[in-house]
């Protein structure tokens, strides 16, 4: 996959079949769009392309209170798009000037003059231009005006759930990582650096790695205990259990992400760990004492191993 920054130009000899969006999560719906792009590009001997924006538009439009949490870091998204078979990723710098473009100025300036697509494939609910004033019908008319075709795609469904990045985020916030995985067509990922904790876990037989996320915009699942796959610095995937929460049993009020690698011994401070969420084990509980906590963790470990037996190792 070739990565282009639009402010430096876009020059591809073959006809371009284009789509537009943030593609946060690169979920089942996004992959369906890319599949349609690929088939249309094959028919005309062209290449596929995605026009996306960086930074995320909401950060620019609402800098003080954007409340944005993303399913992927930008690097994760690039890897996923390449895996999905995209030929070209076009990155446009999103700023106030771009945000103020009318729908016509947007289509003329970005699409017709810079990218020059042969065809645009887009969701039937796509909005664009200043204040999201442009509709799909507007886009179709402008396509005729500037000489490119426009094809609408219906929203995809998985298990009768309409797939959208918002649906995936809501599932993750609620701790329903199993549903999120189905909508994404892969396990939800998280990665971070192992930092020093208070080391209480090792005193009750469950040493943990405290994770500090690599990207503060990354969404974190709701509080609770989870069965996960984990690996250190691109090593082998191992069974693990992960707790997200404020550790009420220890009278803590700081939200932490603690990972226990099952049947693993070693020092991983300062290392980067990747996690893939499989299923939620339970909600966060305040136990009467650390002995009750230790007993619950033993049950969590048994349940984690039982759950992970049913799932393949991550491919992505």
Structure write-up:
This protein folds into two domains: 2-163, 3-Layer(aba) Sandwich (Rossmann fold), CATH 3.40.50; 188-310, Riboflavin kinase-like (Elongation Factor Tu (Ef-tu), domain 3, Beta Barrel). It contains ten helices and 14 strands. It has helices spanning 28-44, 57-61, 74-83, 96-99, 103-115, 136-146, 165-173, 177-184, 200-203, 290-308, and strands spanning 2-5, 16-20, 47-54, 88-93, 119-123, 149-153, 157-158, 161-162, 188-195, 209-213, 224-232, 238-245, 256-261, 272-282. The strands form three sheets. A six-stranded parallel sheet has the order 1-4-3-2-5-6. The protein has a six-stranded antiparallel β-barrel with strand order 9-10-13-12-11-14. It has a two-stranded antiparallel ribbon with strand order 7-8. Strand 5 (119-123), helix 6 and strand 6 form a beta-alpha-beta unit. The protein starts with a strand and ends in an 8-residue tail after the last helix.
